[in-house]
Amino acid sequence: MDKDTKEQINLLKFNIILTLIYIGSLFFSLLLTYNEERRKENKKTIFDFKKEGIYNLDNRILIAILTFGYFYINIKNDLKARKKGQNTKNFDLQVIASIFSFISVIIVLYVSYQEYKNRQINSADFENPDL
Prior knowledge:
- The structure is a single chain.
- 79% of the residues lie in helices and 0% in strands.
- The protein is an all-alpha fold.
- It has one domain (3-125).
- The radius of gyration is 18 Å and the shape is elongated.
């Protein structure tokens, strides 16, 4: 196996790890939304109000880190294609999409921080970020 193939395999492994963590984060987002629903129904919740805010913010930070990881993979693939003299149009589009995703995650993270700080917005009142 040459160096380039090993690097591609490592990027694929990294992508698999990021995806598994992202699936876990989505599951946790589901729990947070379910917790909010139970709170609105005046039923026993999984997390108390303060912990829900902390977990929501932590989950958003995790999503930002994952998004940056996907951005890193896209940049590496784009640079590798340029080095080989390949057509990079599709890679360039993936990098641009990653930049937009990262910007949207930063905005959602800011809203989550404001929610945590002020606790005026319910976590279910805005959409979870998608990668």
